[in-house]
Design brief:
Blueprint (H helix, E strand, L loop, with lengths): L37 E8 L4 E8 L18 E4 L2 E5 L6 E2 L13 H17 L8 H28 L7 H12 L6 H13 L14 H5 L6 H8 L6 H4 L2 H8 L3 H38 L20 H6 L6 H6 L15 H11 L11 H7 L4
Antiparallel strand pairs: 1-2, 3-4, 4-5
Helix pairs in contact: 1-9, 2-3, 2-4, 2-9, 2-12
GO biological process, one term: very long-chain fatty acid biosynthetic process
GO cellular component, one term: endoplasmic reticulum membrane
Membrane topology: Multi-pass membrane protein
């Protein structure tokens, strides 16, 4: 959901979770084509660092979806005079099929993002030809450093949702780990993710599967124009904009992954570069993207969030607990996503450890009263 290339001081076009890309705000009108139901919208206040919860009605907009990808279901659903198609093995309907790769003009930002993503995938194809155990374990170590410490703990739970506080030196260290994941700088990543929660599964959501599974998974990253049209100028990351460290990472972002690639090559040659950059980056890419796509398509809903978020166990295993996505959408502020004892959440285990040794403070967890309000029987 993020921009791959370096950003200007106040970027308008770009992400991540992506990868991530910050998305600008354009209009205050919201629409969602699903029986005019009411969705929960969370608004992030960057000045207070708190979330306020509210409800917004969405009127039905009849839109005929275009041809869906081969991975999506073939049987259409009729709703009035409009035919919708369901995503394979899911009850989620594609309302507004989005064409990204053909029939539109690509700008330089789209080409830059797509070029880096493609380059990482091509580099990873050399993995079987240059396998060795040292390179493999380097990739595994960086998977934990950049994926767990960088993306799930820092970019997501600490910076996007302020689920806990860390000493600044440790907060900045974890954020730097996230930069090495090649998913964009923290300001852009966080901006996109906050907009996702604010406009979840509406027409202003940057990556909803109601516009197609592959759109929510990755292709939305390459359509800068559609993102700009949804939300307009980013105004939800004032807390990060005030800190010179995050502004520095935004202006120098692309240099840091390049430096890591050079270091890996110096340490172990081409095998280290292939496994430590290509394989590891692509692996973390798709795990991050599955939270956006699979966790809004397949799984179960434990809480009445009035959106498409699902708890998905296999994404939770791969993404260090991020797959308990319905739990997360119900209690966005919570540092713990795996709320049941059997719900594996490695990110929470790290946060809990940091709390026990006094490094993580103000750790937020859902109250029993909030759980009762979010339960389906209520």
């Amino acid at each position: 959901m993020a921009l791959i290339t370096s950003q200007p001081k106040n970027p308008i076009l770009h992400n991540s979770t992506t990868v991530h890309r910050s998305i600008p705000r354009l209009t205050n009108s919201l629409f969602f084509a699903n029986n005019a139901r009411t969705l929960k919208v969370s608004n992030f206040n960057s000045n207070s660092n708190k979330f306020s919860l509210g409800t917004n009605p969405f009127r039905t907009v009849p839109i005929i979806s275009a041809n869906v990808a081969l991975t999506e279901a073939l049987e259409p659903e009729e709703e009035g005079n409009v035919k919708y198609r369901r995503i394979l093995l899911s009850d989620v309907e594609v309302k507004r099929e989005r064409r990204v790769f053909f029939g539109r003009k690509w700008n330089s930002m789209d080409l830059g993002t797509a070029g880096v993503v493609l380059a990482m995938h091509v580099l990873s194809l050399f993995a079987p030809l240059c396998f060795n155990w040292r390179a493999f374990w380097v990739a595994m170590a960086l998977y934990f450093v950049t994926g767990l410490f960088g993306i799930t703990l820092s970019f997501h739970r600490n910076l996007s949702h302020r689920s806990f506080r860390l000493p600044k030196w440790l907060e900045y260290f974890f954020a730097y780990c996230g930069v090495l994941a090649l998913q964009g700088n923290p300001i852009d990543w966080v901006s996109t993710h906050r907009y996702h929660h604010q406009f979840c599964d509406s027409e202003r959501d940057p990556h909803s599967p109601t516009e197609g599974f592959w759109f929510s998974h990755m292709s939305w990253l390459f359509d800068t124009k559609s993102v700009v049209e949804r939300c307009g100028e980013p105004d939800n990351v004032g807390d990060l904009e005030k800190q010179s460290f995050y502004r520095f990472l935004r202006s120098t972002y692309i240099l840091h992954p390049l430096a890591l690639g050079g270091l890996l090559y110096a340490m172990g040659g081409f095998p280290f570069l292939v496994w430590g950059m290509g394989v590891r980056v692509v692996w973390v890419y798709h795990i991050t993207w599955f939270v956006n796509s699979a966790c809004h398509v397949w799984g179960k809903q434990a809480w009445n969030t009035k959106d498409l978020s699902r708890n998905n166990w296999w994404v939770a295993v791969l993404a260090f607990g991020e797959g308990w996505h319905n739990n997360h959408h119900a209690f966005e502020y919570s540092a713990r996503h795996g709320l049941e004892w059997w719900q594996l959440d490695m990110t929470w285990n790290v946060v809990r450890f940091l709390q026990l040794i006094g490094l993580a403070t103000d750790v937020k967890l859902p109250s029993q009263a909030h759980k009762l309000r979010m339960a389906f029987h209520n």
